[in-house]
């Protein structure tokens, strides 16, 4: 197993970094994107600065970290983290998280890693998001590897084996951690569940059977909690469109817009909770058959993520409103309720492109938004035995 086996999906090597970056800064699409997220940038000076960088690490530390710090100041009420005592900065892990934001889940994780004196991790990104060639180049320069999507069955199996092999190679040979979301796409209702197909993929390649391959990949869950999801109204809109038309399909334009909204709009407080590597629990499953093993590993990851959510007032309020109760009234004030109701109304007011929308349609979307914010609390109560 060598890097040549993964050349089409792996990040660019530092030996070609400057060559690829020099090509990237000439791309009109990249220039447009840079000016969009940094309106005051002097692009010529910025391009020159980029072309002087000669490694992924330098790019992340000198360009991406300051950019992300700027985003934190502009679009959050602060990022916090906990549980770094659960992992070892001399080890490499497969970090598995719930998926809230297309771009920022992994980016903010890397910022937390740097702040806690850990190396950054490689990042899995779906090929469906690589709408333009320059986006593919950018993510490969920024330590990302590609997850091939939407393939025929035989090609999908081949791609899954290649991906599993690359993650094994990154962990065991390159000694680098990787990040991957627990499922393809974000959980629209925030009811986060690990797809068993992901665990099957991780178990495909390595130096042994499924159990040994999973052990070698050192799976470590992380719970990500955003106080507000800037895409909540877009998700509610999608729920309504699917209700009105079961065949509704999102477009690439929808994905790009979601990425833009997630990047640039307010997210409130954000917390990353690092959980222990699950290998000690995995050891207890050594004698399970493969299907039982896959199911149990998914359950272990889900429980770790659910138990470690950070719960904000909006989560308690959404839960109580859905239940028509006051179970968590001590966790918020009347002012909190007014602000949450106002926030939800303002978000729903942004849904302006569905013709003939009714009061019933709006009530449905409101209910879906409440579910998005209630489900993390609901799952935490179950995971911690407090349901």
What order do the helices and strands come in, and which of them pair?
Layout: H1 17-24, H2 28-37, H3 43-51, H4 56-75, E1 79-82, E2 94-97, H5 104-115, E3 122-126, H6 133-141, E4 144-147, H7 153-172, E5 178-181, H8 196-202, H9 210-216, E6 219-226, H10 232-244, H11 252-264, E7 270-274, H12 279-283, H13 290-307, H14 313-323, H15 334-348, H16 359-383
Parallel strand pairs: 1-7, 2-5, 2-6, 3-4, 3-5
Antiparallel strand pairs: 6-7
Helix pairs in contact: 1-6, 4-5, 10-16, 13-16, 14-16
Question: Can you walk me through this structure?
Answer:
The chain is of the alpha/beta class. It folds into two domains: 3-225 and 283-307, 3-Layer(aba) Sandwich (Glycerol-3-phosphate (1)-acyltransferase), CATH 3.40.1130; 229-265 and 311-387, no CATH class. Helix content is 52%, strand content 9%. It has a seven-stranded mixed sheet, with helices on both faces. Helix 6 links the parallel strand 3 and strand 4 (144-147). The chain is globular. The mean pLDDT is 96.
């Amino acid at each position: 197993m060598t890097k040549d086996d993964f050349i089409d999906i792996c990040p660019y090597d530092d030996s070609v970094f400057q060559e690829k970056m020099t090509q990237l800064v000439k791309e009109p699409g990249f220039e447009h994107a840079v000016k969009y997220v940094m309106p005051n940038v002097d692009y010529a000076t910025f391009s020159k600065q980029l072309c002087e960088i000669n490694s992924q690490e330098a790019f992340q530390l000198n360009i991406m970290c300051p950019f992300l710090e700027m985003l934190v100041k502009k679009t959050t009420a602060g990022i916090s983290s906990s549980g770094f005592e659960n992992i070892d900065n001399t080890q490499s892990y497969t970090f598995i998280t719930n998926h809230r934001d297309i771009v920022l889940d992994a980016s903010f994780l890397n910022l937390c890693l740097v702040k806690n004196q850990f190396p950054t991790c490689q990042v899995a990104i779906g090929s469906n998001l690589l709408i333009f060639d320059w986006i593919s180049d950018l993510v490969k320069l920024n330590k990302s590897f590609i997850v091939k999507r939407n393939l025929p069955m035989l090609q999908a199996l081949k791609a899954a084996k290649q991906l599993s092999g690359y993650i094994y190679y990154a962990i065991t040979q390159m000694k680098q951690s990787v990040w991957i979301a627990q499922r393809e796409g974000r959980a629209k209702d925030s009811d986060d569940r690990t797809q068993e197909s992901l665990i099957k993929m991780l178990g495909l390649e390595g130096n042994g059977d499924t159990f040994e391959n999973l052990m070698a990949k050192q799976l470590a869950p992380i719970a990500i909690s955003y106080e507000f999801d800037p895409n909540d109204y877009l998700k509610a809109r999608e729920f309504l469109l699917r209700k009105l038309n079961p065949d509704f399909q999102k477009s690439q334009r929808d994905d790009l817009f979601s990425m833009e909204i997630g990047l640039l709009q307010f997210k409130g407080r954000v917390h990353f909770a690092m959980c222990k590597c699950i290998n000690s629990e995995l050891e207890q499953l050594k004698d399970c058959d493969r299907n039982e093993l896959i199911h149990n590993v998914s359950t272990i990851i889900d429980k770790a993520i659910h138990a470690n959510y950070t719960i904000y007032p909006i989560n308690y309020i959404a839960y109580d409103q859905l239940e028509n109760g006051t179970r968590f009234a001590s966790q918020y004030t009347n002012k909190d309720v007014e602000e949450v109701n106002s926030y939800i109304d303002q978000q729903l007011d942004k849904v302006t492109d569905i013709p003939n929308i009714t009061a019933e349609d709006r009530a449905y979307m409101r209910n879906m938004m409440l579910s998005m914010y209630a489900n993390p609390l609901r799952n935490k109560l179950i995971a911690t035995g407090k349901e």
